[in-house]
Input
Amino acid sequence: MPVIPALKALLGSIPKQASLKEMSLEGQRQAGNDGATALAAAVAEEPREVGTITEALVEVDGGHITVRIYQPKHSGPHPIHLYYHGGGWMFGTIDDPFVDIVCRERTALAGFVSVAVEYRLAPEHKFPGPLNDSYAALEWIVEHAAEFDADPTRVTVGGGSAGANLAAAITLKARNENGPAITFQLLEVPALDLTASSPSVEKYGTGEYPLSRAELQVCLDGYLPAPEDATNEYASPLLAQDLSGLPPAHIMTSEFDPLQDDGARYAEKLNAAGSKATLTMGAGHVHGSSQFTKLLPEAAAWRDEAIAQLIEHADRHAVTGA
Output
């Protein structure tokens, strides 16, 4: 199908901003933060009410990072969902209103203790820095689960775009290092092959849709210390030699997205390795449009699908322990 008509009209009404190469990094970050606030007010449903919201500092190599913990109103223990924001590893923050909305939804609607992770950004902190920060947050919340009425045996991870890349890589790292058991991974518009070899990169990265090939390359150059690091399995989970023994995955891609094939290829490889994966493709969506829940019924349906997946896997694990 074509791009969702209401979405196409919105994209056409948004003024073109300077490219990533034409603005300073700080300028881009500030513009992105300001733009996200205005955009969320226009296109996203109001944030859901939750029980309590707490911030904590997590010790990481060379410093600390902040995590924001959202607890349901009712008593637990609740399953845990770690959420890693997108932004090309170089941009984004847990203060982004879209991140707040997602975490509130997963807490209020699915009954999870949601944890938003403020991993340090590239290029100041290149790979594997953001991944190591994200993994430290996983270990921390498992250790401190009782403080937040959370169940350390029901831990899920998720994220969008670069955040989904981190979530997928964390499952590999946890498996390889006998780390905390992860019961489910929810990967939305994931970037999983940082060699940018998926056919959809060229097909949809022309600049006609959000996330051009050139913008993607800027983020890859900022995140990776060297081009050859793109083949490291923790940078590109899709290129891992062994994808067995990983938690079940639900992968959600957008039709007009340079990253569409990353998700499809990963689902195929996970299933071939015996790690269960399901895949859906948001027809008519572009990269990031699933956040426009007030404007697009298709985005609200995307949100509802994500919530249903989390509930299903939490309930299944509570009953079967698997």
Q: What stands out?
A: The first strand starts at residue 52 and ends at 60.
